[in-house]
Amino acid sequence: MTRKPIIGVTPDINDIGAPETEYLLRKNYADAVLSAGGLPIILPFAAACDLYLQEIDGLLVTGGMFDIDPQLYRQLARKDFVMKPERTAFEKALIKGARDRGMPILGICNGMQLLAVCLGGGLIQDIPSEVEGAFEHKPAQSASITHHNVEIVSRSRHLDLAPDALHSVNSVHHQSVLPADSYNVLAAASDSVIEALEAREGGFAVGVQWHPEYGASEIDDAVWRGFLAAAAQFSSNSR
Tens digits of per-residue pLDDT, 26-76? Predict the structure, then answer.
């Protein structure tokens, strides 16, 4: 029997004080990994990231309703932000370790933004106040409903995406990624907001600003297929 690639999935954490603090992960993240042929494993926050990375074949950095400390991308905060430093430090360590190993990484929403920061990029701290002519990227509707189009603007090294194609996606965010030399922009919205990126060098390291775990867009299958194919190849090469 072929071994399924093991995907480490980062959870969120609530604000309830210990000992009642809870890890949080929407079911559809795990369901999407299972449907794509992987075995999802939740990664509790811990200092021993190397131990996790020895056991998994791919890293899924999930989204969350919080922001990354602007100091991590060489900026000062221009407004009050909700930040989760413990989670961000944990995910940063995982991303660095995975990159060092050539392990596939998929970052979703906040996970894409942190991947960009780890690759040396920066963020637009607030789309409505900083991007002239931007439309609403954080609509008051369910993420199961697509909201706007993105255009594939460059060819991916790892995902089967047709250049210039338009896809309707379910973005839910108020920050976005700035261009950087270390990654290519794969997709952008019509208001110039970056919606997907890919590291220019090394193994699979892709970020998408929308939420493919909902399966709301036709592009989502390509994202999961590419990620799990890369994880399966990594597993085959390393075990």
Answer: 999 999 999 999 999 999 999 889 999 999 999 999 999 899 999 999 999
Structural domain spans, the chain? 6-238
**Is the separation of the CB atoms in 176 and 117 below 8 Å?**
no
> For residue 37, what are its two tokens?
């042929």
Answer whether residue 1 shows pLDDT above 70: no
What are the backbone angles phi and psi of residue 167, rounded to the nearest 5°?
-135, 140
- Helix, strand, coil % over all residues of the chain, rounded to 5: 30, 20, 50
Q: What is the pTM of this model?
A: 0.96
Catalytic residues: 109, 211, 213
Partners of residue 39 on adjacent β-strands: 6
Given a contact cutoff of 8 angstroms between Cβ atoms, the answer to whether 83 and 123 are in contact is: no
Domain 6-238: which topology?
A: Rossmann fold (3.40.50)
- DSSP secondary structure letter of residue 176: E
